[in-house]
Amino acid sequence: MMTKTVRLSVCVLALIGTLSAVGAPLASEAQVRSAEQAWVHAEDQRDAKSLRQILDEKFIVTFGADAPLNRDAFIKAVTSGTDTDISQTLSDQIVRVYRDTAVSTGIDTVRAVTNGKPHIRRYRYTATYIKRAGRWVALGEQMVRIPEIH
Question: Fewest C-beta in 10 Å: which of 14, 33, 126, 137?
Fold first, then answer.
């Protein structure tokens, strides 16, 4: 009887450990998605302070074949751009988490007004996140504009 109880206890503990391991990536995926939404909101609001918290100090971004921008250059570009009434919507997101690293891909649809003319641009993005001090921060991003189909 004691042996069956010990075996059952071991099985229950193993199951709990497995469920916890499965739940951790799902929680992390949700945290990364939340970080991405905060990033989009900070860009829309041209909030340099929030962007500095969201983007790692070693952050780097590339747009297509253009030269990479570091965190400060990116924040300056976002906060001093000529576009107005900016809003972004993320879609087709896929987030993969491995320990303290996450990669997110998706489509970023940007709606803005430039020189009084409204426009919509879509970008395919890949962003890399790392977990620092218990929170996810963006380490890098690659964006490529999706050509418009007429």
Answer: 14
